[in-house]
Amino acid sequence: MSTASAQTPPALSPATFRGDLGGSLGDLGTLLPFLVGYIVVAGVQASAILLAFGISLLAVGWRYGIPFPVQPMKAVGAAALAHTATAAHSMPEVLALTAAMTAAFWLVAGWTGVARWLAAHLSRDVVHGVVLGLGIALILGSLRRIEGDWVVGLTSVLAALVLLGRGAWLLMPLLLLAGFAVGTWRQPELMAAALQTPAAVALPQPVWNGIPATSVWLSAAALTLAQTPLTFGNAILGIVSETKRLFPATRIDENRVARSTGWMNLLAAGLSAPPMCHGAGGLVAQAALGARTGRAPMWLGGALVLLALFASAPVAALLALLPQGTLGAMLFVAGFSLVIGTAGNPRDKQARAVLLTTAAISVWNAGVGVLAGLLLEKGLQTRVFKL
Fold first, then answer.
1. Total structural domains in the chain?
2. Chain CA centroid to CA 21, Å
3. Residue 208 clears pLDDT 70, i.e. is over it
4. What average pLDDT does the segment 212-216 reach?
5. CA atoms of 94 and 81, how far apart (whole Å)
6. pLDDT at residue 138, as a whole number
7. Where exactly are the transmembrane stretches of this chain (predicted)?
8. Bridge-partner residues for 166, per DSSP?
9. Half-sphere exposure of 241 (CA within 13 A, CB side)
């Protein structure tokens, strides 16, 4: 850990062991719903996703020396989980290929300097439109699960909305605990089986037995395209801006973060895990709970690596205990967070048209939504289209 990045900026309290330990939990509200969704809904191997996130958290904590976050890619996660709910694809294979495509793009963008150039030419309305559409798609998928277990689902959603603005980092752990309690009450034999599942060393198994099918390539390309604008805005520009504000001594720029994103996703692809990114909100959340150094992500990363290597089977067995209503509520909160993240920005008539058109098409296909939004925006700017 570099001494420069360990310096405490004047605006923050001093670094403490307790602060870093508590701050390491600050991003669980973002991680847990997608972690649970990927394992239980999309069928991703628990060892793969836990190991990929764990190693990445250890690496960025050591490399940057600050509470640098590692998060699921929200557009990819929302699209994958929403489509999985309708049995669209074999998602583990699609997600691993998406991680490989994402790695290639961001490594090239980071090494060539394209990342900084593209970031300056992003359209906020197209980015927000994709996020809005994917949030709605995820909410619709969550409601399909809640309708079969509406008492638990509705209760969990209402409780989540109450907690969302009052200690959001506790929200997902509390939903998990409540879900485990309901699952144990309904099916005590499953809890007994989960507790009896032996802990053993387990490594992820490859999801590709050969060259992926054409449909898998097309699905992965659509997910990669849908995520790219959001990653530029939040995981490249946003994280660089927030790092300079909170930890000004840290050496960072858009190209460096792009390369970091590429290396993480190369690891994810090799482990058959979903793609990952850095998110500005994760940095802010950890810092708000007292995290000041790279120890914060390293605490969480170390715990995830241990779970991946020695307890992935018990973790998967426990997650299978969660009621459909709880899973639906967790996915609802994830979708709701995406939707409200697009609010609060004034827009004129043309901007609203781009936003809502992109969102509407993204509910169906996020990749097509990006292309449609860019085309509409360009047409309106050149007056080919008129409103």
1. 1
2. 21
3. yes
4. 85
5. 12
6. 77
7. 35-60, 94-114, 126-146, 158-182, 299-321, 327-346, 353-376
8. none
9. 12
Collapsing DSSP states into helix, strand and coil, what is residue 180? helix
| Tens digit of each residue's pLDDT (9 = 90 or more) over 148-189 | 899 999 999 998 888 776 655 677 788 888 999 999 999 888
Mean pLDDT of 100-122: 82
The DSSP output letter for 251 is: -
- Find, among 30, 46, 27, the residue nearest to 38 by Cα: 46
Rounded CA gap, 202 and 110, in Å?
Answer: 33
Q: How far apart are CA 132 and CA 384, in angstroms?
A: 26
Q: Measuring CA to CA, how many Å separate 155 from each of 31, 115, 148, 149, 162? A: 22, 43, 13, 10, 11
Per-residue model confidence (pLDDT) at position 96: 94
Q: Which amino acid does the sequence have at 366?
A: A
Q: Backbone dihedral region of 354: left (phi > 0), alpha (psi from -120 to 50 degrees) or beta?
A: alpha
Phi-psi region of 131 (alpha: psi -120 to 50; beta: other; left: phi over 0): alpha
In a domain, 111, yes or no: yes
**Residue type present at position 113:** G
Res 20: pLDDT: 86
Q: At what angle do helices 254-270 and 46-64 cross, to 10 degrees?
A: 150
Reference 134, options 217, 76, 219; nearest CA is 76
Per the domain annotation, does 299 fall within a domain?
A: yes
Say if 29 falls within a structural domain: yes
The one-letter code for the residue type at 52 is A
pLDDT at 7 over 60: no
Q: Judge whether 134 lies within some domain.
A: no
Of 337, 331, 361, 381, the closest CA to residue 32 belongs to 331
* Token code pair at residue 357: 């058109």
**Is the predicted pLDDT of residue 41 greater than 90, yes or no?**
no
Both tokens assigned to 93:
């294979």
For 72, list phi and psi in degrees, rounded to 5.
Answer: -65, 150
Q: How many CB atoms are closer than 10 A to CB 7?
A: 16
What pLDDT digit, counting tens, does each position of 80-94 carry? 887 654 444 588 999
* Burial readout 250-259 (b: 16 or more C-beta within 10 A, e: otherwise): bebebbbbbb
* Residue found by looking up tokens 């509407």 in the block: 360
Which residue range is the domain that position 150 belongs to?
Answer: 12-125+145-323
Residue 5 above 50 pLDDT?
no
Q: How far is CA 245 from the centre of its chain?
A: 23
